[in-house]
Amino acid sequence: MLEKQGRVKPKKSDEEIPEEIRQALLKDMYDKNYREWLNSPIPALDGKSPKKAIKSKEGRRRVEDLLRQMEYLHNESDADYDISWVRRELKL
Fold this sequence. Notes:
By secondary structure, this protein is an all-alpha fold. It is 55% helix and 0% strand. It has helices at 19-38, 50-53, 57-76, 84-90. It starts with 18 loop residues before the first helix and ends with a helix.
């Protein structure tokens, strides 16, 4: 109750995850997510996976648009993640 009133500072949690471990966990999570994404049907690609969509000119354009959006979101967040490997995987 005293914390809520601002009289006592909250204690720093001993269970906070160190930044380097947090980044490693996020990288593993994003790697797994994007590996699955490459082969998953995506509504924005008319139900095709990115690997299938890039076979047409329009699908390639849509995948490029999605990748640019993902890059923007990663640049704006505190999660330092480089998705350039996804472009290489798709040969874009």
